[in-house]
UniProtKB/TrEMBL annotation:
PROSITE patterns: PPIC_PPIASE_2, PROKAR_LIPOPROTEIN. It comes from the Bacteria. GO terms for molecular function: peptidyl-prolyl cis-trans isomerase activity. Residues 1-30 form the signal peptide. It comes from bacterium enrichment culture clone F5-11. This is PpiC-type peptidyl-prolyl cis-trans isomerase. The lineage of its organism: Bacteria, environmental samples. InterPro entries: PPIase_dom_sf, PPIase_PpiC, PrsA_foldase, Trigger_fact/SurA_dom_sf. Keywords: Isomerase, Rotamase, Signal.
Amino acid sequence: MPHRPIPTPIIHRLLLLASLAAVTACSSEASLPQALPRSGNEPVATVNGRPIPRGVFEVMLGVTRQEKASEAEATGQTAQPELTEADHQAILDRLITLEAVVQEAAKQGFGTDDAFLHELALQRDTLIAQRFLAEASKKIEIDDAAIAEYYAQLPKHFEYDLRQIVTADEASARAVIAKLKDGADFAQLASEMSQAPEAANGGSLGWLMAEQLPTTIADAVRAMQAGTFTDQPLQTPQGWHVVRVEGVRQLEQVPLETARAWIEGELRNQKIQQMIDQMRASAKVEILAN
């Protein structure tokens, strides 16, 4: 389960770094016990004598690499981008800025109230859970048979060539249906009785997927065959609809090799969710207040 890219606005970066600082700081005032890093404590810089640990710097290098890789993937680039000396300097500058802001906040007594410490503990627990699940995801093996089975069960998608007649009230729509049952031409009736914009074109909507239609109409259309019309009026906020299906065609399925990575991710997420559900089910829970 790959991590989502970390957002880049400065406030999000500051929040991320503040969380990291809380986990790695040697002099935390938080009441919860915290493990301290065994390596990466050597400073890359100091601000007013307080060190910025190399471990935090390395974490930010990793975050930036991930951001650049995501940007490259989005633009179709295949080569993994390398960080430049300018990237390293920009990261160090952000860490120095963060430390200066944190020190000033500490001078003003910020960050010692209970609400803040509880929020900090929640962020720490969330980060631990995310990292734990990410590592667990890497160990999950998804075989070709599972991918093929999932692919075979993907829903088929269809397009429908539609016409419609829209009236202001149910009685008028039922009158339309009666005329159609008596053999009236749908396109001619649409031009005469429909209040929809496409009336001048015989009520033609062209080819549409059911997902593009209001739910009431989509449900009816999925059950219809080419050459049939709805025998009951369908109501939407736009009015009362009588719909005719002129044609139906199945859309081409995405090739298996194209869908493979996405399917593997979905199956991996399913297994992770099963792990989470099992952990929750086996936990002894006692709810004391809400």
